[in-house]
Design brief:
This protein has 201 residues and is mainly beta. It has two helices and nine strands, in the order ββββββββααβ. The strands form two sheets. It has a six-stranded antiparallel β-barrel with strand order 3-4-5-8-7-6. It has a three-stranded antiparallel beta sheet with strand order 1-2-9, with no helix packed on it.
Length: 201
């Protein structure tokens, strides 16, 4: 069973939703943290599965990139107030933004563009990104989760202060290895078989 509950009541409301599902699989659950700790200069990692770009490629491949918070707005349409520089591609929207300790502090959703070009490899128009992106801080989600019947106790929360460190550059081929280590070493709690979990992304 899958159920989607949205938060957006109008065009300017937070661009968020939760997906509820049941599964017999075990999943690693990423902890969340206080996104207010993310300041200008804070290191971040962005994770997701962008749309395939090459000719004949249909399968999405996991991407994991690093960046740095460049601005935090007091308000913005659809809740995208956390700004950062990082390499992202179309299709990564909805993926988590991690701090350097591996905790979710935002939901990636927008990338600034300056036009479109023809992708000769893929045969379609592609947006030209500037490298600047926006996310909805996880605190926005936490503050509204009661609207969809969720409680904070349903989430894994790590409220230790964020490390004052840059996000290390992710080299080609390292993403899958980091993702495996993340699941084994950082995320200790996994959902039990057959028990419902609710994920914020």
């Amino acid at each position: 069973m899958t159920e989607v509950k949205g938060f957006q009541n109008n065009d300017s409301g937070p661009d968020l939703a939760v997906v509820m599902f049941e599964s017999d699989e075990e999943y690693s659950v990423a902890p969340i943290s206080n996104s207010d700790e993310a300041e200008i200069g804070s290191g971040v990692y962005i994770s997701g599965y962008p749309l395939p770009a090459g000719v004949g490629s249909q399968e999405r491949e996991y991407q994991f990139t690093n960046g740095q918070v460049t601005n935090v707005r007091s308000s913005n349409d659809q809740g995208y107030t956390m700004r950062y520089d990082a390499v992202t591609r179309r299709g990564m929207s909805g993926g988590p933004v991690f701090d350097v300790s591996g905790r979710v502090i935002g939901i990636h959703g927008q990338g600034d563009t300056v036009g479109r070009v023809q992708n000769e490899a893929g045969g379609r128009q592609e947006e030209v990104k500037t490298g600047f992106n926006s996310a909805i801080p996880i605190n926005t989600f936490v503050g509204m989760m009661s609207q969809v019947g969720m409680e904070k106790s349903a989430l894994k929360v790590d409220e230790k202060p964020a490390e004052n460190a840059d996000a290390e550059e992710v080299k080609p081929g390292e993403a899958q290895g980091w993702f495996g280590d993340f699941g084994k070493e950082i995320v200790k709690d996994v959902i039990q078989r057959g028990i419902r979990r609710i994920l914020p992304f």
